[in-house]
Design a protein that fits this description.
With 236 residues, the chain is mostly helical. Helix 4 crosses helix 6 and helix 4 packs antiparallel against helix 9.
Amino acid sequence: MHDQPNVPVRKRATSLAHDLVEVLSQQILLGQFRPGDKLPSEPTIVREHGVSRTVVREAISRLQASGLVETRHGIGTFVLERESQLGLRLTVDTAASVRGILELRLGLEVQAVALAAQRRSDDQLRRMRQALDDYQAQLANNDSCVEEDKRFHQLIAEATGNTYFTEIMQHLGDSMIPRTRVKAEERGDADFERLGYLASLEHEAIFHAIRKQDPDAARAAMVLHLTNSRDRFSGA
């Protein structure tokens, strides 16, 4: 009987550790902490997240177990190289391989965007909006908007609240938006400015569905976007 008052405390600590793992994992998988970067010190994490040292230590232990970080005693905790964690090797240099990646993304992102529409936070929505605004600015200047395109899709994965979506999208990296890596004669349509504009309209439809928290509309918008993207390479 004397041990029972401690049970809720333990459950609370475990829950806090889980929440902290989710936050740090998302920061790592989205590249806010890159391979080789040192995580903030234990006292800094305690202060920034309002948790105890015990919670921080448990969270770091879980990150180590998942292969995201390693702790070097007396030095600190460092983010591990991502390439070594997933056994995927993606070569995207032909129109056929681009279509293959887009088919993979159809299977992945249609579900992700539905979850994002249900679970996204206001801050995540704001960052998606910023990514699309940056995309438009790059497009208007005839500059590459691949990074902004990639960031928008990675933010959708983050908004699912499921780190596995984020991890896979992070691993896809540049292969996620591979159109600029395909030889011009294989693209099927060399007018990339027009393609960028069409993609922009599709992104806006996805964003508005997420903003309205409408998972069905979000699924439909993502299917349209990725199917159109795939079909733009049909001339290869």
